[in-house]
Design a protein that fits this description.
The chain is an alpha/beta fold and about 240 residues long. About 35% of the residues lie in helices and about 15% in strands. It is built from nine helices and eight strands. The protein has a four-stranded mixed β-sheet with strand order 1-2-4-3, covered by helices on one side. A hairpin with a 5-residue loop joins strand 7 and strand 8 (about 190-195). The longest helix is centred in the C-terminal third of the chain and has 16 residues, at about 205-220. The structure holds flavin-adenine dinucleotide. The site of flavin-adenine dinucleotide has 28 residues, from strand 3 and helix 5.
Length: about 240
Amino acid sequence: MEATLAPQPRSRPTASTSNEVSETLARRLRAETAGDVLFDAPSRGRYATDASIYQIMPVGVLVPTSERDVAVAIDIARDLKVPVLPRGAGTSQCGQTTGAALVIDGSKYMRRVLDVNVQARTACVEPGLVLDHLNAQLRPHGLWFPVDVSTSAQATLGGMAGNNSCGSRSIAYGNMVHNVLGVGAWLSDGSQVQFGPVDGLTGKAAEIAAFVRNLAIRHRGEIERTWPKVLRRVAG
Ligand SMILES: Cc1cc2nc3c(=O)[nH]c(=O)nc-3n(C[C@H](O)[C@H](O)[C@H](O)COP(=O)(O)OP(=O)(O)OC[C@H]3O[C@@H](n4cnc5c(N)ncnc54)[C@H](O)[C@@H]3O)c2cc1C
């Protein structure tokens, strides 16, 4: 029998992340954040894959306890030129959470419901909150968050936003892009921005929105000609 052979998958950090950089990164994260800092091989191995076939060893993992930990980690990673890769439940199927990066896992500590406004029917949450946990807290009010991914027992709101998730009722209720009113985020330069309805954007968020809008306008012809007409695009 003749079989097709393939090279073995690589699962090591890229050559650009030296041991020295990775040790400095771990040392600084331990000193400057309150999060769990996981740089041992078994921990990195656990984070090397998600629900996809891909496998890439991360440089290390930070499990932050607060927004401050995330902001500090981004600053340290920028100083050391290490990419950062946020992660929720890791149920992505196309390798979205795999990479030779500092993985920042928000699912352990950053999972609080910060506010529910029953009249306005809005909620403000931390990104590591699991969808079923949010819906359990909304049930007494007769409300639910209607993007019903089938991984609702694991999927986090941050990961759902990152993937523009949808569900079996999305034709009626929409995807994440139709149900998320705003997102607070850090940029790689350490600045914090608030994304929301385009009309209300200010500062860097407005600049980024204008840049993306101009790209869409400039390439409109080619996008309309070549892009498949699908209901869901992961980029939102
Ligand atoms: C069996 C199975 C069934 C599925 N069914 C569905 C389905 O019905 N509908 C559907 O839409 N998808 C489905 N999926 C895909 C996946 O479960 C969803 O996309 C899910 O919402 C991802 O959530 P997560 O927390 O696992 O995200 P992750 O996989 O951890 O992350 C997803 C993306 O978001 C980014 N991200 C995570 N947290 C943050 C953050 N705090 N800030 C910025 N970016 C962040 C990550 O970098 C990544 O790019 C399914 C997957 C499996 C394995």
